[in-house]
């Protein structure tokens, strides 16, 4: 959410940003916001004047009555009533107009960083670097579901009966592997001085609208019928929501949090939910990292979070590449973002396993998350990044650690979480 002062002082910057994000259809909204803001400020000023005049006249009435100047007092009373009626008419317009402006402003995307590459969609994202050695397999790598089924580790048919497409049962060592990965991710982040959190898995609408755009909300979130509650699509939603309407002291920042949660997503607008796969699903689990910090700290925190993610995959010997998200691929609240992609030996290409984002003060303005600094009160900056989302991570893990005999090698860092097994499938 942008500062309304930016619309007043530099509307051309906002319009140029819309062009960079290929959202030219919203340019007229900027002028609409400016016009409504001018009208809002005009009536607000008049309302303030009326309140001041009404208060002054009310004091006069008391003085006149004390002097037994009844006729003059009645004339002043009539004037007070006239002001009161005008004020009532203004107040009936004031709040709805303010809400109209807020609704429009929330549809305008955050200003993106100057170095974000221009592009319409993810096909124009820019590769920054790669980490890890790609080791070619000397045998054909099966589809990830086939690998799991060979190990009696997944049941999609039963899940379709109980829940439909986009769900699964994980079994045996594959289920244990799933839990091992999240436990290792938890400890990995704790060792990097992040506070471990298990957050609420349902949040109210005011939190949802504070952490994401309306379009994302409609496409992702499941609403609890008859309740002001939504199932979270990621624990970032709960973690940022934790700070709603708070004032933080600068000497306590940054706050580094890492959280575990199930995640629930409608996946509206996706290319369809696979009947045989766990890449895009309605329910999964994830370890997330979130930082709340002072504005000047967020560029440094962004680099820190990205390094955590890359180091995590490197510790498990899974090759990754980092892509800079282009302007058209950035969600509306993002200032800057990168995707982390893992190597798929089967497809011989990379696929997304995580996303690191700096949202500057976009969420903080919506949720009123502020910081007391030596120079005054400012809005905090918020950042988030995926540590690991096991369904996609499992795909990368199984393919990269598959042996020719069908067993799965367990890297040393993960062995303590797997009963010190070196392989599964034997």
UniProtKB/TrEMBL annotation:
GO cellular component: cytoplasm
Top-level lineage group: Bacteria
Residues engaged in binding L-serine: 234, 265, 288, 384
UniProt site positions, description: Important for serine binding: 386
Residues that, per the record, bind ATP: 265-267, 352-355
PROSITE patterns in alphabetical order: AA_TRNA_LIGASE_II
Gene Ontology MF terms: ATP binding; catalytic activity, acting on a protein; serine-tRNA ligase activity; transferase activity
Listed InterPro entries: aa-tRNA-synt_IIb, aa-tRNA-synth_II, aa-tRNA-synth_II/BPL/LPL, Ser-tRNA-ligase_type_1, Ser-tRNA-synth_1_N, SerRS_1_N_sf, tRNA-bd_arm
Name of the molecule in the record: Serine--tRNA ligase
């Amino acid at each position: 959410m942008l500062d309304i002062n930016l619309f007043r002082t530099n509307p051309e910057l906002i319009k140029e940003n819309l062009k960079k994000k290929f959202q030219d259809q919203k340019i007229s909204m900027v002028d609409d916001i400016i016009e409504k803001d001018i009208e809002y400020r005009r009536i607000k000023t008049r309302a303030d004047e009326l309140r001041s005049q009404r208060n002054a006249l009310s004091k006069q009435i008391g003085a006149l009555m004390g002097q037994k100047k009844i006729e003059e007092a009645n004339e002043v009373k009539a004037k007070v009533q006239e002001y009161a009626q005008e004020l009532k008419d203004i107040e009936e317009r004031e709040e709805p107009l303010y809400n109209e402006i807020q609704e429009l402003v929330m549809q305008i995307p955050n200003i993106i960083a100057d170095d974000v590459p221009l592009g319409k969609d993810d096909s124009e994202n820019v590769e920054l670097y790669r980490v890890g050695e790609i080791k070619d397999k000397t045998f054909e790598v099966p589809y990830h579901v086939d690998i799991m089924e060979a190990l009696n580790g997944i049941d999609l048919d039963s899940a379709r009966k109980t829940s439909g497409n986009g769900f699964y049962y994980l079994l045996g060592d594959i289920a244990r592997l799933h839990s091992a990965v999240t436990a290792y991710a938890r400890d990995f982040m704790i060792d990097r001085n992040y506070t471990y959190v298990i957050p609420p898995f349902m949040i109210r609408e005011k939190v949802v609208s504070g952490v994401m755009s309306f379009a994302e909300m409609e496409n992702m979130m499941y609403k609890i019928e008859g309740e002001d509650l939504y199932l979270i699509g990621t624990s970032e939603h709960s973690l940022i929501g934790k700070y709603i309407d708070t004032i933080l002291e600068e000497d306590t920042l940054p706050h580094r949090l890492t959280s575990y949660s199930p995640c629930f997503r409608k996946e509206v607008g996706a290319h369809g939910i696979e009947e045989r796969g766990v890449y895009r699903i309605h329910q999964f689990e994830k370890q997330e990292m979130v930082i709340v910090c002072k504005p000047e700290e967020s560029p440094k925190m962004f680099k820190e979070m990205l390094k955590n993610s890359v180091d995590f995959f490197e510790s498990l010997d899974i090759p990754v590449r980092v892509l800079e998200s282009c302007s058209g691929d950035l969600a509306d609240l993002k200032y800057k973002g990168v995707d982390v992609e893992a190597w798929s030996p089967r497809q011989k290409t990379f696929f997304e396993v995580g996303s690191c984002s700096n949202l500057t003060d976009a969420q903080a303005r919506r949720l009123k998350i502020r910081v007391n600094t030596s120079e005054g009160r400012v809005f905090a900056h918020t950042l988030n990044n995926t540590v690991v989302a096991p369904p996609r991570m499992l795909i990368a893990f199984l393919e990269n650690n598959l042996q020719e005999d069908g067993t799965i090698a367990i890297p040393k860092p993960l062995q303590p979480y797997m009963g010190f097994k070196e392989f599964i499938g034997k």
